[in-house]
Structure prediction request, 317 residues.
Amino acid sequence: MTTTAPTTTTIVTGRAANRTTRRHAGGSHRGEQLIGWVFLAPFLVAFALFLAWPILHGLYLSFTDQSLTGSGGGFVGLANYVEALSDPVMWGAFGNTAWFTLLSTIPLVIIALIMAVLVDRGLPGQWLWRLSFFMPYLLASTVISQIWIWIFNPQIGAANNVLKAFGLAPIAWLQDPKINMLAIVIATVWWTVGFNFLLYLAALQNIPQQQYEAASLDGAGGWRQFWSITLPQLGPATTLIGLLQILASLKLFDQAYQMLGGLSSDTTRSIVQYIYETGFVGYRFGYSAAISYVFFAIIIILGVVQALITRRRKDAR
Prediction:
């Protein structure tokens, strides 16, 4: 059998065709990349203007003595951070924030779980309960504050009327420094528990019903099923809800500021409110920026610790 060797013209033509194909493929790939960057550009611009630049500019301000009036602005190094770490008012505000976080997170997890279990187990009128539980979360903080200012009114408020019905003395909910933090916690729980309720409800609906049916066949009652099936299955959801709630509670400001009429005390001043007072009332932008980054560092540390604890629990299982 005779084979014909390829001619020089055929080889050259084939190579040229391969180069043309690669050129077209490379051009098509570059075109796709360009289109991708065009679609990504609006996000990158918004990210740079509203997130990256404020963070970098705030970090720069924390090393200066910049004032709201425009004076100052000179570089002071770590002086603001040294002052912040030795500021008893800042640590007191952080303690108030941590106390509020503890007081609010626990009931926001427990109450949301109870509400979700009741609705998931076939509570009559489920759509009405879901709407009622979640509706307060849709309201603005100003609306929530005004509602609870009326409820906590020492003369005509519903809270003291309930206490009187049980034979208890009325309380100055928002005027007494020993009680007003509790009042803010109650308002916050009523306002935000609906979001946690929805997360728990979604997690409950993802639990296979076959597990409950098998447990019933084995003679397990409702409480036994709840402790042995429901709670363990809700572990990831509880971790997520707890983390989200801690991060949200650490940002306490608007409802406390509005319910107390902009006044602050040693028992209710949050770290965010102290940052606001330092920057916009005391005109010390540089120092308020330093406090912000100290607070940010504390949150990062707490987040890392929580992640390590969660990972160790998973490894232990």
Summary: Residues 17-52 form one domain. The chain has a mean pLDDT of 86. The CA atoms of residues 160 and 178 lie 16 Å apart. The chain has 13 helices and no strands.
